[in-house]
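Thread: Newbie trying to understand structure tokens

Hi all, I'm a second-year student working on a class project, and my supervisor (Dr. K.) asked me to get a predicted structure for one chain before our next meeting. I've only ever worked with sequences, so writing a 3D structure as a token string is new to me. If someone could post the tokens and maybe explain what I'm looking at, I'd be very grateful. Here's the chain:
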Amino acid sequence: MTRRLLSYVVLSLGLVLAVAPFLVTILASFKAGVELVQGPFRLPETWRYENYVTAWVDGNLGRFFFNSVFVTVLVVVPSVLLSAMTGYAFARFRFPGSGIIFGVLLLGLVVPLQALVVPLFYLLRELHLLNTFWGLILPQIAMSLSFGTLLMRQAFVAIPREVVEASIVDGASSWTTLWRILFPLARPALGTLALMLFVWTWNEFLLPLVVSVEPEYQTLPVGLLNFQQQWTSNLPVIAAGSTIIFLPLTVVFLIFQQQLVRGITAGAVKG
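---
Reply by user tm_fold:
Sure, no problem. This is what the structure looks like when written as tokens:
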């Protein structure tokens, strides 16, 4: 009983520490500037929704929000599909050099973006992809494949080989086996991968900062940096802009948190 009570206390403390910054930011986004000094958790006297209008319109966050959604979708969807195909290949086929190729592919997990951003900048400049959406999308797809291939390979290895052999006996091709049989069975891992790639792409800051100088192609994290420089003296409007960035992530995570837990747990148990 004492151990359980202690666990609840520790978990409650962790919950407060995790939620408090978001709650303070949300409350600040509805306040006037003078109300900020009255206490971070104090409710605003008048809920100022115009702070969001100012951030969305005058701060051009509407454009940055569209760019983030556009780039995130075009990174996550191809990355999940390509990761499923490469993971299936490394899980079910043996070909010359497969171990070496898989090892080289996994180097993407240990090489940080900071070490790649300078040569990547020059490469994109030679390909005339700076200040374009393709300059944001293609590198992030490539950087997602290392983790995606590893996760999907483990998911497909965990599926009993008898399932694949039965489909082959029934005359199914490799493509049919992947899309009609293994793909549905690996749905928890696919959902986990999609959610994690969504969070990483949505929060990506360094790459958009380097390859997109023009505001027309900037995403929300970089747009918020410029927005903060413009509205430094108006903290409630900055808080509204910050809320616009993290609120979609929070909603998506709350909706798919059970999917994430199932995917991670399945990998831990079967692996």
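A couple of things are worth pointing out once you decode it. Confidence is low (pLDDT under 50) at residues 267-271. Residues 1-48 form one domain. Feel free to ask follow-ups in this thread.
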